[in-house]
Design goal:
It comes from Streptomyces prasinopilosus. Residues 13-240 form the Nucleotidyl transferase domain. Keywords: Transferase. The protein has 243 residues and is of the alpha/beta class. It has a single domain, classed as Spore Coat Polysaccharide Biosynthesis Protein SpsA, Chain A, CATH 3.90.550. Helices cover 27% and strands 24% of the residues. It is built from 7 helices and 11 strands. The chain has helices at 45-55, 69-77, 95-104, 127-136, 187-190, 201-207, 228-241; strands at 12-17, 60-65, 84-89, 114-118, 121-124, 141-146, 154-157, 163-167, 176-183, 211-215, 221-224. A 7-stranded mixed sheet has the order 3-2-1-4-9-6-10, sandwiched between helices. A two-stranded antiparallel ribbon has the order 5-11. Strands 7-8 form a two-stranded antiparallel sheet. α2 links the parallel β2 and β3 (84-89). The protein starts with 11 loop residues before the first strand and ends with a helix.
Length: 243
């Protein structure tokens, strides 16, 4: 039996892969951030992303390149990929919103919804569930929301000021933008030609109650690969999962 929302689930996506990755040096001296390999997998971050998107029903991806674009393009051309990939290169900085709009113009189905993900996110959860959530709420844009663990230990106190417990790396009490999105077709036209949609388009949609937030399911794997420490932690988590 077909799910009532199955027809409205995206089959196309944009991956934003143009970042400099300066905090990941020296790994990013000769490659863009999404081309950094997760230790122990032999596969760059973008390889994991494309496999995940394919598993979730995506057939066409537009990869927006910038910093060292030719390294990423060469890998994409020489790798057996599970879906069709087109690359676009920003010849001048357009900002995050402008870059997204530039890439979205190359999607094969402009009249259908689409996913987008930042090129440094390594995650696994049901995009199909997120797409259904987006449709049910009649949203123009839906953001995945993560509750990352704090890098510090936390202290619990009682009302009198006595310390009652120490908690190692507790989850944040705030949800953050997890860098994975579902967009309705009309979202593309709301993006700026240049600039940051997170400061313009998203706040406007939030005021209009047309922006939704999909909390990542309990236990879903999510990590933003920003620093060398994130790479080490990702490798450790991967090793513990495969035991």
């Amino acid at each position: 039996m077909t799910h009532p929302s199955a027809a409205s689930r995206p089959v196309q996506a944009v991956v934003l892969a143009g970042g400099q990755g300066s905090r990941l040096r020296p790994y990013t001296d000769d490659r863009p951030k999404p081309m950094v390999e997760i230790p122990g997998t032999g596969t760059p971050i973008i390889g994991h992303q494309l496999s995940w998107l394919a598993e979730e029903g995506v057939t066409d991806v537009v990869v927006s390149c910038g910093h060292l674009a030719e390294v990423l393009q060469e890998w994409l051309e020489n790798t057996d990929l599970p879906l069709s990939v087109t690359t676009v290169v920003e010849t001048e900085p357009l900002g995050r919103g402008g870059g997204l709009r530039h890439a979205a113009a190359r999607l094969p189905h402009p009249d259908r919804p689409w996913y987008a993900t930042n090129g440094d996110i390594w995650t696994r959860f049901s995009l199909r569930d997120m797409a259904d959530f987006h449709t049910e709420r009649g949203a123009v844009a839906t953001l995945a929301l993560a509750r990352p663990r704090l890098p510090w230990g936390a202290v619990q106190t009682d009302g009198f000021g006595h310390i009652t417990d120490f908690i190692e790396s507790p989850p944040s009490t705030f949800e953050i933008n997890a860098g994975v999105y579902v967009f309705s077709p009309e979202f593309t036209g709301l993006l700026p030609e240049r600039g940051d949609h997170e400061r313009t388009t998203f706040p406007r949609l939030a005021r209009e109650r047309r922006l939704a937030g999909f909390p990542l399911p309990q236990g879903a794997y999510w990590r933003a690969i920003d620093t060398a420490k994130d790479l080490t932690e990702a490798a450790k988590e991967l090793a513990s999962q495969s035991r």
